[in-house]
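Forum: Protein Structure Q&A
Topic: Joint prediction for protein chains with partners

I've read a bunch of threads here and the consensus seems to be that you should model interacting components together rather than docking separate models afterwards. I'd like to see that in practice. Below is the full input, 421 residues plus whatever partners are listed. Could one of the regulars post the assembled result?
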Amino acid sequence: MRHQLLALLARQPAYGYELKQGLEQTFGAAYPQPNIGQIYVTLSRLEKSGLIRGTEVTQEGRPDKKVYEITEKGTEELAGWFEAPTEGPRVRDEFFMKLILAEGTDLADQLTLINNQRRHCLNTMRGLNKLAATERGNRTSLLLIEGAVLHLQADLDWLERCQEELT
Amino acid sequence: MTGAEPTPPLLAAHALVRSHLSGSTLIPAVRGISLRIDRGEFVAVTGPSGAGKSTLLHLLGGLLRPDEGELRLDGRRVDRLREAAWARLRRRHYGIVFQSGNLLSDFSVADNIELTALLAGMSGRTARERRQELLEDLALAHKATAGPGELSGGERQRVALARALVNRPQLLLADEPTGNLDSRSTRDVLALLSRYHQQGTTIVLVTHDARAASTADRVVSLFDGRIADDARVEEPPDAWSSANGVRDVIDFGG
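Posted by a regular:
Agreed with the consensus. Here's the joint model:
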């Protein structure tokens, strides 16, 4: 959840509960929402790593609360996250985060994210083609590769859908 | 794009625009595409249906004329040529293959290839030699006397490819050549394309199949009649193996 929170803070400084609302509004009911406890734990870790800075705000008659803002180091971390293509089988989750959260951060635009991810998928596909050529004759291996190819094709088709809807 | 370059690209499209008439409304299919294809390149054109892929390919092959823009072949302006001149250009320089294969159903595989060679202007003897070469090259020798109806989808597509290659084209245009093929036939057709590419044929491949696209060295992604991305596909490092390759995509749950 680190990058989601950083992305929201890259738009503007916020309190913990505002970040929870921000995530809910951004992703809607289809995405599992973190509880407020998880958010505060993540915020305190981010603060310890110097990626965000918290400032106490005194409130009359109520306990102080902290407003958080992203630091330069945090912005760098976030830019790096946007820039790196998303790896692994959970690509649709993490890439989707980047795509949705990019808006308003000035750190990445959606078409660039989609293009980079497409390039990454095609390069991986190229690797799988090469692998299939060396594994010719090994049925088990070829079946596994074919599974991976179909997953990648699905990712690429879905990237097209994202492009149709978002850009 | 002056055409005065020392070695002009094989194909140079500049700001191509083309609309189709649907009923009484004009639907823009290609909305301003500039593209340079150098000799020896293998370029895949991808994008969702309706993005303008096929229209672009037809424009590049002179099967459609652009409403606006320029097309140069070998530095020479060709977008205003008449059909007869285009037909000559295609016979001499182009090979074109479509998803449907377009075989002559009353003729055998061998005759399908030989007739194409004769139509391309070869002598009877050269046409027969070329037929024999291609039958062997595309692993179709055992089907030489079969009719198109007796062929599998993959075999039909290989015959279509043989017909497109009969004139040893500089430029091969292929529109979804693996469109309705099973996985193994797809692999065979792609392997053939790669081989001809390695022998120097310039290829433009329109495809929706990511495996086909990643066979090319360069992928042009169309979206809504325009180029959204134009990227080189990188050759994976030799150390690339199943360890990171497949695991990158499939979760083993481990």
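Chain B is about 35% helix and 25% strand.
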